[in-house]
Amino acid sequence: MNQNVEERINNVVSSVINCSSADVLPEKHLYYDLLADSMMMIDLMLVLEQEFALNIKDDGLDDVNYVKDLYRLIHEQCN
């Protein structure tokens, strides 16, 4: 995937979850490592939709637990 896309996702994650961008790594768990809660995840999806001009399905979060899952989700949505 395009490095710039991953960087943009990382920036959104660090902004919404209020963590250091250095902590946003593909293998980090959004809930357990980065301490996101369900409201942050909803905000995250809304901001990612705006950032990438996408319309992510309501069940789009179902398989998202790790940062790398966000990369996969955005990549799938962009194609």
What is the gist of this entry?
53% of the residues lie in helices and 0% in strands.
Can you tag this structure with a few keywords?
79 residues, mainly alpha, globular
Walk me through the topology:
Elements: H1 3-17, H2 38-52, H3 67-78
Helix pairs in contact: 1-2
Give an overview of the whole structure.
The structure is a single chain. The mean pLDDT is 92. This protein has helices at 3-17, 38-52, 67-78. The chain is built from three helices and no strands.
Strand content: under 5%
Described by strand count, sense and barrel closure, the largest sheet is: none
Categorize the overall geometry. globular
What are the segments in which pLDDT stays under 50 over at least 5 consecutive residues? none
The mean pLDDT is: 92
Rounded to the nearest angstrom, the distance between the terminal CA atoms is 11 Å
Number of distinct helices? 3
Write down how many β-strands occur, each being a DSSP E stretch of 2 or more residues: 0
